[in-house]
Amino acid sequence: MEDLNAIFSPGMLVMHPEHPEWGTGQVQSNIGGKLTVNFRDEGKIVIDSARVSLRAVFDG
Prior knowledge:
The structure is a single chain. The chain is mainly β. The protein has one domain. It is 0% helix and 42% strand. Strands 4-3-2-1-5 form a five-stranded antiparallel beta sheet, with no helix packed on it. This is DUF3553 domain-containing protein. It holds the Pfam family DUF3553.
């Protein structure tokens, strides 16, 4: 099982590739292949890193 989001740490901004309508999310935690992300338009979501590869956002 590969952790597709291992590079993300708390505070980083990300987008969910399958749900762009959620807006930009801020990583809250990255523990054991599970990321907790607070998305602007959807709220707090837990992402399984073995199933979804998030995209980094660098311009806010």
